[in-house]
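B., you asked whether I could sanity-check this one before it goes into the benchmark set. Here's the sequence:
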Amino acid sequence: MKLTESRLLTLTLSAALTGVLAAGSVLLFRWVIEYGQSLFLPGGRIGNYEALPVWARFALPVAGGLFIGLAFNRFPPALRQVGITHMLLQLRNEGRPSLPAKNALVQFVFGALAVITGHSVDREGPGVHLGAAAGNYVGRGQKLSSEEDYTLIACGAAASIAAAFNTPLAGAIFVIEVLRVRYHISRFMPIILAAVIGAVISRSIHGDSPSFVIPEISLESLGELPIIALLGVIIGLLATGFNTISRHIAESTLKWSPAVAFTLAGIVTGTLGIWSPAILGISYDTLDNMLHNHITISALWLLLTFKLIATAVSIGMRLPGGLIAPVLVIGGAAGSLLAGVTAGLLPLPSSPVAFYATIGMLTMMGATLQAPIAALIALLEMTGNPHIILPGMLAIVMADLVSRVLFNQESVFLALQVTQRQKIREAEPAAEPATDKETVR
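And here's what the prediction gave me:
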């Protein structure tokens, strides 16, 4: 798609507006979640599910799942389509993509409720949907081509990631690797601008730090590289297991009503939360404790296992939440565990636990989403430390080789998209089948 100077200027101005709206919707979504948590969690502390009584840890996600499920039962099938998988389906359809405002409203309200009631999902996945819907909204009313509409959706997605994690460059790369947007200069100038605006608005409210503060870290010795490679292999296996479980659950529960599926997801999460309350909600407070080495080895084992199970069940049963933050927690726990287990085994200085946790976080993200470059860029932007790139590259490459080459894994979103498309076809048998493209438009 080649644009004239005037069309490119119009698209760029629209991208700027998209960046403002996307960042605003993401930050409002975050505020609603944090305010909701502060109303009932002990001490008004955000994420303080650990301080709840045992019965409440179980009852909260069960009640939340039942309420959200009963509401979804009343919605027509088309209105239940939310999240990044919904976006991917629209972006891969022929013709003009459409992200209706009603679906975005459902995503906002019930995505917030899912997080507030302790389900193991995040706010970033719904934020991408909200940002993309903002881009789609900006395109309406203008005489734009379907290609330009598509670009504005990508602008909204990039701006939402930039605003959520304070990572503008990773936001732009995210749309290439996860949404499979084909690179073209006339498309990516607006996308980069939207990402910059999203990050600027986020920084003006929350400061320069990302959602979690990462201590000063570095690789102490090149002799640790075999351990870093081993971490990549382990996380490749974890990502494969996570994606496989999520896909199988999605396929097995395809015909279940939302009330049954969401309530069961709440029962699983609530039961695991009795033994490891740190898995409840987004778990950013747990991630912060992990990065500062405030979690014991035994607690990390439970966190890793239970967070993976609870998130895979929640995502597989199509709760209206995201998975990016949970996989960061899973990867961070794996890195922390490996650091604890191997400490003192090598006759060399060892890097701090935060070093391994940080590499584990972003490696798990790269392997699960099949987005290695976005993970590396996020690693650099979050730490501000170029010295972590070399070991990070090694871990991410090893994880990608294990998940993609040995086990033929694809992005978890693409795997879930197939199931989502099947559900839509069953609900609307007369609809034309959508085309499935690896890289689109």
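One thing to flag: The domain at 5-206 is CATH 1.10.3080.10 (Clc chloride channel). Otherwise nothing jumped out at me.
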